[in-house]
Design goal:
48% helix; 2 domains; Spore Coat Polysaccharide Biosynthesis Protein SpsA, Chain A; three-stranded antiparallel β-sheet
Length: 380
Amino acid sequence: MTDAVFAAAAFCGATFAVHLVSIVVAIVRCRPAARMTAPDGLPPVTIVRPVCGLENFIEETLRSGFELEHPQYELILCAAHADDAVVPLVRRLIAEHPHVDARLLVGDERVSRNPKLNNCVKGWNAATHRWIVLADSNVLMPPDYLQRLLSRWDTKTGLVCSPPVGVRPEGFWAGLECAFLNTHQARWQYTADTLGHGFAQGKTMLWRRADLEAAGGIRVLGEDAAEDAASTKVIRAAGLKVRLVDAPFPQPLGQRRLSDVWRRQSRWARLRRVCFPSVFLPELLCGAMFPTIALAFVAMALDWPVVVSLAALLVLWYGAEMVLARAAGWPLDAFYPLHAIMRDLMLPMLWADGWLGSNFEWRGNPMSVDESGVENSRAA
């Protein structure tokens, strides 16, 4: 066996082993959790939810924030403009739940070039409790949402988050987005968290107010390309850890187009490249594409049946992902192998796009990431 063949075989074996380990980690961390009760002594919490426009399942996801089983919490919904289409819905939900301490704040305080962060500032400043959750409007909150977040807190924690997990996909392309969000991105995030290198995800972030105020307040989150990347750096600088909640919270997807999936993944790739370039660099090797190429080289060099060898690798590779999806209760249908193969073929293209591109769009706001890592909005 030549050195090249040995290196290719070692690469294929190592990547497959790492893949399986990450699957096992994700199965342990992401399987459905038993519903947690709300014991006495839980601290009061403020939830700040920025809203912007009418999304798929928006009434259901916003309503879930009014139905939490927590002894004391306040819900602050933030809109940048009074004429936003979601505002009447928010007002109706508040009126339907008079027992919930909820209010709508409207205004556009531009403390950064990040429109989502700008929308959250007024809610953060108005919060009355020392524990504050920043949560996107498309997160579906289970009744024990706050208990599960608080349960992950310990003396070394500075932030608790949840990655988005796609549920209720409608159509082929929404299934592709699930293959990105669930069995790929969530899996790697939980592996990193289990190894002690967790990083923030802006879908849900539980803060202890004093930690962010000590770093300069919520405005400091506008100093990086994305508020979750800035959050990670703030917490690590304080010598604390970012933790992920077990059994991540879902995001109902509904219909998706291929362009929707590409734009979201492209935006995230460009932001990761700017915020954490050393971590983004090895992302090129994620997925089954390069191990498959390596195995094909080995099979041809050793006169193995190439098609059988590659088919065996792909069955094991994607079969393990399907076991994860089933164990975690995530969407899984007959198209999954095709979705996973398409995802892995797209990963190198997205990696290249992350290095070559700077512009992206977020909720209708055309933006770009400059060399210093600060978002610039041409609409600002």
